[in-house]
């Protein structure tokens, strides 16, 4: 496992400055944002989009692309078709850039329309997987508090509905803590279908806090991931367009790395206590 940086930092800085700040801190792996609200990768532009970014990331590795679209589970006339095309384009650009994972989400819906919307979401995911089968890029659906995928019951239903191993989960430590979901239970349920991990700090009343200002205990989380066999990247999530950074990017990045220093990749994992693998 190694640390990467999610480029959607909420800092408002150009992508080139974000990349340089990460490299100065020793991070050369990136989770590239391709969301509508933070479109560092403009996937709909085709191969030209990938070509524009290659010089900027020379000597670096793009390990994942975050491409959540709020309408993935909507009806055709509500943007559902557009969301499928958006996700397919993101997977194609990820393949061109050497990234093995694209992160998406199902969005939310009114309670009385939940089952119908869920089935539309499953159909959309199957369409995306079918249209991108040759890329071999995996699709990771994120568990989030305000999303249809917000409980272990729904995680189990997702994995049972679509057995394709290319479809898996993206875990967000902040969201898991905020939503009081036990990491150990998610790992046991998902098995090898954990495709992506976002490291985010949080408190019980806020799903995103600056590293050091939250309550997430990262050492037991990372030990649990290692013992589970997760060998992917650990993406640092420092901010979002809705939750901007409280400090300059360089300071926020330094604080995050300092918080995670005791569980650096060179540290041998220790057996966790029974309570350690929960958040």
Please outline the helices and strands.
Blueprint: E1 2-6, H1 15-24, E2 29-35, E3 38-39, H2 47-53, E4 61-66, H3 80-97, E5 101-104, H4 114-131, E6 138-142, H5 152-161, E7 167-172, H6 173-178, H7 183-190, E8 194-199, E9 201-203, E10 206-209, H8 218-228, E11 233-236, H9 249-260
Parallel strand pairs: 1-2, 1-11, 2-4, 4-5, 5-6, 6-7, 7-8, 8-11
Antiparallel strand pairs: 2-3, 9-10
Summarize the structure.
The chain has a single domain, classed as TIM Barrel.
Structure report:
There is one protein chain. By secondary structure, this protein is of the alpha/beta class. It has a single domain (2-263), classed as TIM Barrel, CATH 3.20.20. The chain is built from nine helices and eleven strands. It has an eight-stranded parallel β-barrel with strand order 1-2-4-5-6-7-8-11. Helix 3 (80-97) runs parallel beside helix 4 (114-131). The longest helix is centred in the first third of the chain and has 18 residues, at 80-97. 44% of the residues are buried.
Give descriptors for this structure.
single chain; 279 residues; alpha/beta; TIM Barrel; 19% strand; disordered C terminus
Q: Summarize the helix and strand pattern as letters.
A: EHEEHEHEHEHEHHEEEHEH
Report the principal-axis shape.
Answer: globular
Named CATH topology: TIM Barrel
State Rg.
18 Å
Strands of the largest sheet, in order across it?
1-2-4-5-6-7-8-11
Task: Give the integer mean of the pLDDT values.
Answer: 88
Name of the CATH first level: Alpha Beta
